[in-house]
Amino acid sequence: MRRSVRTITTLAVGAALTAATLTAVAPAPRAAATGACSNSGTGIPLPFDFGSLGFPRGGAAQGPQKPLPHFDNGRTRTVSWVTGPRSHNQTFGRFGISGTDVGVAWDNGRGQTLMAFGDTFGNCLRQDRGWRNNTLLRTTDRNLADGLTLSRTGYAGPMFGAVGFSGIEKTKIPTAGISIGGKQYVNYMSVRAWGPPSRWDTNYSATAVSSDNGRTWFTPQSTIRVNVGVDAALPAGWPSVNHVNPLFQQSAYVEGRGADAGWIYQYGTPNGRFGSAHIARFRPGDILDPSRYQYWTGTRWGGPASNPAPIVRRPVTELSVAFSPVLNKYVMLDSPNGVLMRTASRPQGPWSHARRIAPASLELYAPMMLPSSPALRGTGPELYFNASRWDDYNVALIQTRVR
What we know:
Domain DUF4185: 87-398
Signal peptide: 1-26
CATH superfamily: Glycosyl hydrolase domain, family 43
Distance between the termini: 53 Å
Pfam families: DUF4185
Protein name: DUF4185 domain-containing protein
CATH architecture: 5 Propeller
Radius of gyration: 20 Å
Number of helices: 3
Keywords: Signal
């Protein structure tokens, strides 16, 4: 039994190290990228020529994006598209993005909101042109009532690359972001292969760091959490092989307030959309050292040898967590069947029963709260979040009112 465990661990660490060395390498264009953008829709003319970037000269951005459905039930409303050819940001012409999802959002520490997106398509008509594993966009817009306006213009390159082969490493998807001490940190998952709907396999999760406001990224090997549910003692600076790692393949960050100040809290879920949520905490200076993280066991905080207890029972999907001064509570959003909201007085809970704030009929997933929301700045009840739509494969801005 020990020999089998050692063999599995060695293979997993080797795969993680191989993938980690390619973090800063831009991926080659895919010959046959798959996803929602494989559908076709109404052609939107190019505002200027992207021919030098591999886009069809004089072509059109085609894809599944349609007008954003109107929804307003008095508490929650759809505001506008954030990405896509139909958005007022015109992300195809300005950034070479006709389809993308997720939109993890955080304040960079200087009032600018950074947003990390997942698999990104250039032109959905030509999937062998402009495909990226992930991208980063920025905004300084704080008045979101009429939509979110992105800053600057220019082709949005990948944040970090991936091997690009299913069964080894298909892609890298950002799941959480935070700014600490002037640096930007993004937690991401290394997807080994996509499975049936809402299921996928991961090699590991890891934390990339940027010292230049997200222009370049580096992944310290010490932050790699190999997705193997066993314990192995490895030298300092090596990837982590720990039984808690499978619980933290996707993440959300929040800074503690009040009695919880001085800690950063990381929420974790397994790969896919069917697991429970767990929580860890660490001091800001220890973000790159998972061996110093503490885990909530249900009654106390314990070290990496402890057994974390679920704080929200399955199924929990891609989630975001923030503190609302308006409610004086922590707020959690996820979307197993419509967008759900929970609240808690402490990061570890107990968390309230989920309330559905957006119906399943809107087909939204990955709700990511925006730090410039009045509900998160203490200036009003409006809470804004990015949410992706299945059929359109683009990110929309949604507003709800906390109460």
